[in-house]
């Protein structure tokens, strides 16, 4: 496994900064800076797998990141979006399949530095991107509690959507599926639906990380998120303190 020292990491950061300038103002600056830190964390061994092409859809950025990774001896694989959703048995199979199909057209790149991790990524991608929440947390260096919270929010969103479909279709499956295929759904009406949607759309991005904080991590300075954030921050400070300053702005929580 390659050992990446400070001069090499600073060179990679310089390449990424140049790529950001090349992509222009349409590229989200905060997201690009976070991906820079994520790649550096991978190269320092703090993050097992780095993903590009999911948060940022800019093709030039994703292709440029992949090329920089290859130039530095990292393994780059293209594959489907990962999905660790564990569908409860009481959610209709047709709805679950329809929702899962929405991810199928999308592709991301997965970057690794260790051979065994690259092989694991390959297996996951061959499995259509399906994996467990525990594996997703481990491979992306996200707190497991935050990953599970993310999928719980998604489950709530799906249940609220099914509630709306059922109410407007007299619980008739054919009518529900027809309504789901439309560009817009009727708005949430019940107190529960509104509460669930609000919760699903209210997220708290981790500073120096690419995950959203769960309630437990938001309420503790000694949480799993806090520990991982400190590791990521230390990598940024090691390579270039200016990167940490740029990521310390008010935009990220």
Task: Set out the fold topology.
Blueprint: H1 6-23, H2 29-43, E1 50-52, H3 59-71, E2 75-80, H4 93-101, E3 107-112, H5 115-126, H6 133-140, H7 144-169, H8 173-180, H9 191-201, H10 215-218, H11 224-239, H12 241-247
Antiparallel strand pairs: 1-3, 2-3
Helix pairs in contact: 1-2, 1-3, 2-11, 6-7, 7-8, 7-9, 11-12
How would you sum up the major sheet? 3 strands, antiparallel
- The largest sheet has its strands arranged as 1-3-2
Low-confidence stretches: none
The best one-word shape is globular
Order of helices and strands: HHEHEHEHHHHHHHH
Folded structure, characterized:
The protein is mainly alpha-helical. It is built from 12 helices and 3 strands; from the N terminus they run ααβαβαβαααααααα. The chain has helices at 6-23, 29-43, 59-71, 93-101, 115-126, 133-140, 144-169, 173-180, 191-201, 215-218, 224-239, 241-247, and strands at 50-52, 75-80, 107-112. Strands 1-3-2 form a 3-stranded antiparallel beta sheet, sandwiched between helices. Helix 6 (133-140) crosses helix 7 (144-169) and helix 11 crosses helix 12 (241-247). The longest helix has 26 residues, at 144-169. The protein is globular, with a radius of gyration of 20 Å. The model has no long low-confidence stretch (mean pLDDT 94).
Labels describing this entry:
about 250 residues, mainly alpha, three-stranded antiparallel β-sheet, 12 helices, 3 strands
Summarize the structure.
This protein is mainly α and 253 residues long. It contains 12 helices and 3 strands, in the order H-H-E-H-E-H-E-H-H-H-H-H-H-H-H. Helix 1 runs antiparallel to helix 2.
